[in-house]
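Worked example 2:
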Amino acid sequence: MAKGRDALLRSTIDGMVGMPAMGLCFDCSEQELADAIGHMSGTALAPTPPP
């Protein structure tokens, strides 16, 4: 969370170190991943809308 919501969501989507991309949930949308992060952290997290 210290790196910010965009960096956290991007790390979840791309994977990092020992964490696989998309948390191995390739059927999950970015919004579903953001919702899961929000649930686990207790802080609502929504993906950045496209430009």
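The chain has a mean pLDDT of 83. The radius of gyration is 10 Å.
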